Fold:
Amino acid sequence: HNKYIEDFRATNEEPNVADLIPAAGGSVSLVRNTVVAAMAMDYKNKTIYILDDTNDSKYLELSRALGCKHLIRPDVGVAKKAGNLNYGNEHITDAEWLFVLDADFVPRREALRELVPYANGDVAIGQSPQHFRQTDDGYYRSKCEFGASMIQKYL
Structure:
C-alpha cells in the first residue's frame, strides 16, 4: 500500500477533489470539527464545501469564518441528504473526484492522500474505515455506536 501511494504521488499530479459535508441541523461545533479536520488533510488540491440543508444562516457564517465554500439549495429538505448531495454534485463542476463526509465524521489527516490513488477509471465508490471514540458518554448515548467501535477495533 505505502509503495503504491508513493509511486502514485511521484508520477501523478493530485486530482482536484471536492470535499462535501452535508449539514442539516447539526450543531455548529460538530460541523466545525469536521470542516477543520477536512481542511487539515494532507492534500493540497481540495476544496471543502458545506452543503447546507437548512433555512438558517449558521452554516453560511461558519463557512465564512473558516474559509470554506457554502452551497444551499432552493428546495431545502427535499429528498433529505440524497437531495442535498445531488444538488452539490450538479453545481460543483470543477472537481475530478468527490469525497463525502457526514457532518459528524472527522477524517484522518492522511485520508485523501491514501484514498485518491485508488480512484481510477475502474472505481466509482471508495469506502474508508470509520473510527469511533469509546467513552462512557458514547456508551450511554448509543450502545450500537459503542459496539461498532469494539467490532472495528478487534476484527
Notes: The longest strand covers residues 17-23. The longest helix spans residues 28-39. The beta strands are 17-23, 46-52, 69-72, 97-100.
